[in-house]
Design goal:
Length: 259
């Protein structure tokens, strides 16, 4: 079974194809996966591997480890473009997510004031006022929308909550009033005998309608780049991603990047 990627709270820095030189923060367990989605393409594996034993990293421990790493990097003269919340699951599930963001912004300002703070979230917790407020404070509030059609979203992202729908999350995303970046992974293939494809004309039409409603400052379009737990997924070619991105920009006026 494909298993978790990160075995520490602070990892990297690594080169992100979307964000540059990135220092990662994993708020979820170091030896298991905790997520409100169970995406077919998740590089950290399926939720079935279990939550592990280490639990969520305490707020004070995150701050201590992050400060130690930032101090080490600055002393060595290492560059840093972004501090990125990612890891082995959904970062906004952390019980003191807002407090962690507050600490991170303070440490960023002290050690690398030019660096950005980014959060990669699956959008499942943005209806919580405390989570939404914390996300509004970061530089790059990157929120997932892989399909604007609920059957496809549920097929690809497999939300844990049975009540989670594309229609519902689009309404929540609209409340950010442009203070967000929408990230959409495009993929094809098959899983358990079901066809997977969120690149069809109907899918792209629905996404374009959703982007117009949400009005994000940017859309990120990308496809799989590494091994996925669902083994019959296929990467969408870069040339096709470029064509889709060009159409999105043409019909919405929103900046679109491809990775």
């Amino acid at each position: 079974m494909q298993r978790v990627l990160f075995h520490s709270t602070i990892f990297g820095p690594i080169h992100s194809r979307r964000l540059g030189t990135s220092l990662g923060v994993n708020l979820t367990p170091n030896d298991g996966k905790v997520c409100s989605f169970d995406c077919l393409y998740c590089e950290a594996g399926f939720n079935a591997q279990g939550p592990g034993t280490t639990g969520f990293a305490p707020r004070a421990e995150v701050a201590r480890l992050l400060e130690a790493k930032l101090g080490e990097m600055r002393a060595a003269g290492e560059p840093l473009d972004v501090i990125t919340f990612s890891g082995n699951g959904e970062p906004t599930l952390h019980p003191d997510f807002g407090g962690v963001i507050e600490d991170t912004l303070s440490l960023r300002d002290r050690y690398y004031p030019e660096a950005k703070v980014s959060v990669l979230s699956n959008s499942t917790r943005i209806g919580r006022p405390d989570v939404a407020e914390a996300l509004r404070r970061v530089d790059n509030n990157i929120l997932k929308l892989d399909s604007a059609l609920s059957p496809t979203l549920r097929l690809i992202d497999r939300p844990v909550s049975q009540s989670f729908t594309a229609e519902g999350v689009i309404e929540e995303l609209k409340r950010f009033s442009g203070q967000c970046i929408i990230q959409t992974l495009l993929v094809r293939g098959e899983h358990d005998g079901e066809r997977i494809d969120n690149t069809t004309p109907a899918e792209i039409d629905a996404l374009i309608r959703a982007y117009r409603e949400i009005g994000p400052r940017q859309v990120m379009v990308y496809s799989i780049d590494r091994k996925t737990p669902a083994e019959k997924l296929v990467k969408v070619p870069r040339e096709e991603l470029d064509r889709i991105a060009a159409r999105i920009h043409s019909e919405t006026g929103i900046e679109v990047t491809v990775a």
